[in-house]
Design brief:
With 745 residues, the chain is of the alpha/beta class. It has 21 helices and 27 strands. A hairpin with an 8-residue loop joins strand 26 and strand 27. Bound molecules: alpha-D-glucopyranose.
């Protein structure tokens, strides 16, 4: 109890301190930086310039790369985080190379460094950008103290297909939510005015990677320019406007062009339209993979294509190091192109202060890792990221009686960290079992039933007997961490192994069963719902998942998470997302398989866009999440019925807490553009805000929505708000509420 209380108090401290929410320094904003860039560039040989464009994965191998560093052939390294080794790498570069240019050290700090936060899909489920910014700031403090000054995060890939394993790494299906989270993470990583705790953000994977056909990772995408501009590009633009210093190209080919060779997105959009003057790095060997794509003959060819398309740095193809010099000499690549790439690299290194501070204090770094206030913030984030999907009243636990804890994720300190938690150490994880044993000494009996999420068992006699002797059963289920993330797409999204059988066996005992699912994606859990009395969904919650879940189960924390992705009834519905187009035959819930008589004559039954066997409604819609209390929304009212394009819409409504627990609701504003030069989504999230209310409290709220936020790229390719009629909802999820109407003239 003492530890949890201490962490709780520290959480308040962290949140009270906040994350110095000032805008991060913008790239290239300072003339002195540019003069330093030019002064250095003018001293560099062509070979030294090309060396800056080379990034190597140098984990553990200082000696192996020492000569290359001395020759100025290593502009950046990744996958080394030991501060002693990083200091040695920097010493070699700064003191033993001709120009002493420090190395830019990168790492996948995706949802925390040592202190692991919920996976990014869980961060999105908080709908709490301020808290997510705090977490990113903490990740930067821990990582930069050890010498890591560049993270390959945030991942901004819109994901509408849960078969795609990397849905775990992004902010889900919605462009607006993704954009809010993107800005929060960039500001958190890079901090206020750039200083030694700033870690350059890297927005990735540019662009459209999450639209991989069939949800199979690395697969081709076929996005039109309109889809790119209206759905996939806006989060990147928001992040770059917020000062993101770097960007990573994606593995996929879109409409036949691999992103690493796509001058349209890398030059016209990124540089010419958005004015980005940061650094563009490839994904791991994504330049070399353009040979596999059939987009280049060999490494020399793809190196030429990549650099001429706008790539500045090559991660692990060695195409630049091997071929750029001859390409320049042959005229296939202009030296001015090389100069621009090196300017972007030097600018980031200068802005990060690497020339002044290439080294770190190894001893001081130790005290930063897993600091109590970091753990407290991770716990708070894990609490806010959990989504209550069902509760027949068993939660919150009354705390009395015998508790059976079971399931493969009850005591799985590594699995709860989730995907891309390279530097999280499982020894620091507090599991749900440990937290519950601390919370309820002598009341908890642990019978795992399954040792890991894919285990198959014939019977559960031991667990069933234990359940019969308990007053309540807590089953922790879901996915091992390895089952989501890169290259880990799934064609079947049901709970794996015998987990559903375990729930059925527990249900048969007649005891109340609470399921907690930890996973890297929204699984198809419709068949499990009847076997549980309550269900809490926690996208791999990180180091402090245990205490967070214990607080939620006991009511010390009230669930407030909302689904950042649609939960399907069956994988056959994929892709299914809330902001879809109306179509000419919108589904209205009619005519399903069981309505069809035997031998029915041939008719076009249904006549709408749906599945005979599963309809077209999800199990849980985007933005959905229950609370221990209930929230009631008045019908919103608008200050006008007609607006100009430069107006702001004042949306007023009353939100009430009609239950007996204090709780936080994520009030969401959705808008539909009824008629456009293009068909428009049935609704789109345009604003959200977390509102905490005491039991019985009602609050009059007014949100302001700029009409300009309704702009989109229309038939003429221009981004603007089109005149006409609109509907607007204020609700607790994407599938509820009655709209109010307004028009734009
Ligand atoms: C991986 C991932 C990318 C990551 C990079 C470095 O293949 O696609 O997201 O940042 O390589 O680890």
């Amino acid at each position: 109890m003492k530890r949890t209380k201490y962490l709780f108090l520290s959480a308040i401290l962290v949140l009270a301190v906040g994350c110095s929410p000032k805008k991060a320094g913008t790239i290239g904003a300072d003339a002195s930086v540019e003069s330093r860039v030019e002064a250095l560039l003018s001293q560099m040989t062509l070979a030294e310039k090309i060396g800056q464009m080379n990034q190597v994965s140098a984990g553990g191998d200082v000696a192996g790369y020492a000569e290359a560093v001395r020759k100025g052939q290593v502009g950046s390294i990744l996958n080394e985080v030991d501060p002693v080794k990083l200091n040695e790498f920097q010493r070699l570069a700064v003191e033993e190379s001709r120009l002493g240019i420090p190395i830019l050290v990168g790492r996948d700090v995706i949802h925390g460094f040592h202190t692991v936060f919920p996976i990014p899909l869980g961060l999105a489920a908080t709908f709490d950008p301020a808290l997510v910014e705090c977490g990113a700031r903490i990740a930067a403090l821990e990582a930069t103290s050890q010498g890591v000054r560049w993270t390959f995060s945030p991942m901004l890939d819109i994901a509408r297909d849960p078969r795609w394993g990397r849905i775990a790494e992004g902010s889900g299906e919605d462009t607006y939510l993704d954009s809010r989270m993107a800005v929060a993470m960039v500001r958190g990583y890079q901090g206020t005015e750039l200083d030694s705790t700033s870690m350059a953000a890297c927005v990735k994977h540019f662009v459209g990677y999450g639209a991989a056909e069939g949800g199979r990772d690395y697969n081709s995408t076929f996005l039109t320019e309109r889809q790119l501009r209206n759905i996939y590009l806006p989060p990147f633009e928001a992040a770059i406007k917020a000062g993101a210093m770097t960007l990573m190209t994606s593995f996929n080919d879109n409409d036949g062009v691999p992103s690493t060779g796509n001058a349209f997105v890398l030059k016209q959009v990124l540089r010419d339209e958005w004015g980005f003057d940061g650094l563009v790095v490839t994904d791991w060997n994504s330049m070399g993979e353009m040979i596999n794509h059939g987009f280049g003959e060999d490494r020399k060819d793809v190196a030429e294509k990549a650099v001429n398309a706008g790539v500045d740095m090559d991660m692990m193809t060695f195409g630049f190091l091997s071929h750029l010099e001859e390409l320049v000499k042959s005229g296939a690549v202009k030296e001015s192109t090389i100069d621009n790439a090196v300017r972007n690299i030097l600018r980031v290194k200068i802005l990060l202060g690497l020339f002044e501070n290439p080294y770190v204090d190894v001893e001081a770094a130790k005290a930063v890792q897993y600091a109590p206030e970091h753990l407290a913030a991770a716990q708070k984030t894990a609490e806010e990221s959990a989504i209550l999907l069902k509760n027949d009243g068993i939660l919150p636990l009354r705390g009395k009686g015998r508790i059976l804890v079971t399931g493969p994720l009850a005591d799985a300190p590594y699995e709860q960290l989730g995907t891309w938690a390279f530097d999280g150490q499982k020894e620091h994880s507090v599991t749900p079992l440990k937290a519950l044993q601390e919370r309820f000494p002598g009341q908890v009996n642990f019978v795992p039933g399954l040792m890991y999420s894919r285990e198959k068992r014939q019977n559960f006699n031991d667990v069933v007997a234990a359940a019969r002797a308990a007053d309540v059963v807590l089953a922790f289920l879901g996915e091992e961490a390895i089952l989501s993330g890169e290259a880990h797409s799934l064609a079947d999204l049901n709970l794996m192994g015998s987990q559903s059988d375990l729930l059925a066996a527990l249900k048969a005992t007649g005891k109340p069963v609470v399921a907690v699912i930890m996973a890297g994606r929204p699984l198809t859990i419709e068949r499990d719902l009847p076997n549980v009395d309550a269900l809490l969904y926690s996208f791999h919650p990180g180091t402090m998942g245990g205490p967070a879940l214990a607080n939620l189960l006991t009511g010390e924390a009230n669930p407030s998470g909302k689904t950042p992705v649609t939960f399907l009834r069956t994988v056959g519905q994929a892709p299914l997302y809330y902001n879809h187009n109306m179509t000419g035959r919108p589904y209205n819930g009619e005519t399903l398989l069981e309505d069809i008589e035997e031998g029915a004559a041939q008719t076009s039954l249904g006549n709408t866009s749906y599945y005979l066997d599963y309809g077209a409604y999800p199990l849980f819609p985007f933005g959905f999440g229950l609370s221990y209390t209930t929230f009631a929304y008045s019908q919103p009212s608008l200050d006008k019925t007609e607006y100009g394009v430069n107006d702001k819409i004042k949306i007023s409504f009353t939100l009430s807490n009609a239950g007996k627990y204090k709780g936080t609701e994520v009030a969401q504003v959705y808008v539909r553009d009824l008629v456009g030069s293009l068909t428009r989504p049935v609704k789109e999230l345009k604003y959200f805000e977390r509102v905490e209310l005491n039991p019985g409290e009602s609050r009059d709220l007014t949100f302001e929505l700029p009409v300009s936020d309704l702009a989109f790229f229309g038939l003429d390719g221009e981004k603007k708000v089109e005149a006409g009629a609109f509907h607007l909802w204020v609700a607790g999820n994407s599938n509820t509420g009655e709209p109010v109407h307004f028009s734009v003239k």
